[in-house]
Structures are given as C-alpha cells and as structure tokens.
Design goal:
This protein is mainly beta. 11% of the residues lie in helices and 31% in strands. It is globular. The protein starts with a strand and ends with a strand.
Length: 172
C-alpha cells in the first residue's frame, strides 16, 4: 500500500492539484485539515479530508477512520486532541480506532514516530511550515506499507524527496 499525506495548505488549492499530478495512482490521498476550501471542492473527491481549526465548512468530518489494503488509518487535524501539548489524546483516539497509522496536522511541523505499534505522522505544512525544517519551504509525505516494513518519505513542493528525513519502521 502507498498513500500520500498533506496538510495545512491554508487556501493554496493549486498545490493540492500539483501534488496529485506529482503522485498519480496511489492507493489513497489524505488531507489533514486547514484547507480553507469548501468541503464540496472537487479535490476532496480524491483526498480524504478532515476539518481543521481554520476550516469553517461544517461538512468536513472531525476525523476519519478507514482501511486500505488491510491497514487501518485514523486521521484528524489534531487541534481538538491538544497536539501542541503532547500526543497522548491523539494516541488514545488512534488506539480506540484500532489504527496502525495515525495522521494529523495543525502544528505545521513534520514528524513521524512509532509508539505502541502505531506509526504517527504529521506531514508538516506544505504552505506555511514551522519548526526546525521550515527552511525546506513546505512538505508533504508518502507512506509505503509492506508486510515487513513501513517507509515514510517527506517531499518538497517540487516532489523531490528529502532523503535525510526518510524513515523505516519494521513490522512484527
């Protein structure tokens, strides 16, 4: 399984369309909130999308749980789970959803780690990055999941992989 994860575009619709062209034919496309677009925008026929704190269309769900090729994914923006103050509430929600992958945004800071058998991913913000990797000019992520390994790449606007940030997690 291979999916794409992007978040926090804050009105930049064009980059969402560009990323779809850069990464065609994946198993899933996930948008972790703060698009500032209407929920019925045609892009969200491709991207699974959730409500961010800057999304004012009530038709976005707060979270999504879905399964692709046997992998259960839980996604939320993160603002309602206090992600600025730690990941405990987010982890509890992911555990309740029986997720193997948790996706969130909100902080505009990329990161990925494994905790309690779950991979937790924030792709960063493609439009307004913050934190130690803000100098990259914005990021999104791809996740490749096989029987023995999870591989995460962070990519820049032009679709190039930031190789030093790639991570592998072994599956038991």
């Amino acid at each position: 399984m291979k999916i794409l994860v992007v978040s926090d575009t804050h009105g930049d619709r064009a980059i969402l369309a560009t990323i779809l062209k850069q990464q065609p034919d994946l198993d899933g496309y996930f948008y972790a909130g703060d698009s500032e677009l209407p929920a019925d925008d045609s892009l969200f026929q491709t991207y699974h999308a959730v409500e961010g704190n800057m999304d004012f269309d009530p038709n976005f769900p707060m979270s999504i749980t879905t399964t692709i090729k046997g992998i259960t994914i839980f996604m939320t923006h993160g603002h309602r789970f206090g992600v600025n103050f730690g990941l405990d509430k987010l982890m509890a929600a992911g555990e309740a959803a029986h997720a193997q992958l948790i996706i969130f945004g909100h902080t505009h800071q990329l990161g990925v780690e494994e905790r309690a058998g779950m991979v937790i991913l924030n792709p960063g913000s493609i439009s307004q990055p913050r934190g130690q990797f803000a100098n990259l000019g914005g990021t999104y992520a791809t996740v490749s999941w096989t029987d023995d390994k999870v591989h995460v790449d962070f990519l820049k606007w032009d679709g190039s992989i930031v190789v030093p940030l790639s991570r592998d997690f072994l599956q038991a």
